[in-house]
Amino acid sequence: MIEERVVAVDDDWIIFDPGLIVEPTPASFDPAAWGRAVVGSAEGRSSAWFIEHEEQAWVLRHYWRGGLPGKLFKDKYFYPGRERARPFREWRVLVQAHADGVNVPRPVAARLHRHSLLNYSGDILMQRIVGAHSLADKLADGSMTPALWDAMAMAIARCHQAGYWHADLNARNLLCRDGQWWLIDFDRARKRTAGTWGYENIRRLKRSLDKLSAAGELRYSRQQWRDFVEAWHVGLCGPG
Predict the structure, then answer these.
(1) Cα(119)–Cα(79) distance, rounded to whole angstroms?
(2) 168 catalytic residue (yes or no)
(3) Extents of the domains making up the chain
(4) N or C of the chain: less Cβ packing under 10 Å?
């Protein structure tokens, strides 16, 4: 069970699970402060650092804006109130999804830092799925088997059955380890009532695969995609 505590430290609000991290401070969200505990990193719109601490493996991610707003404001967001700020929203969605049996990383801590009355920046610390490889990686190295396609379809269907809409379901936000799949990066994700929004997620995943395929980064077939969609639909709605 995930516990929750919220503390205020100077200009920061921090929400955390005391079962995983004791008394986090603003320095807990600074990669430089971790020193040799940082064992790697991943670049992208949301930079991430891999941390190993007291036999635990974590991912620290900073929130960066994308598109035109990102060029103007980089990592600053309009402050909508603590509970509606992105770090707190993602934390709570992950906690709820974890409790609902969806394969998501367990959240460790999240922080929002107030720069002024109007804006903030944020970070989130999560457990890392050690040894996992993304869908993009597995398609690139040819290790995606029919069984893995089916297992991935079931994992996504379980997420949708539980009511979770993923804002950016793409080939790098699906991780596989030992035949089991996790969905990561729940920034802007939310729980929704029943509807056709699950198909939007699947179409978003298809666009991601097509973009990477056109760039020569991976290969997959139309038949693989058709079989995946059918398996996802069966997982979501049942056979027939």
Answers:
(1) 5
(2) yes
(3) 5-127, 133-237
(4) C
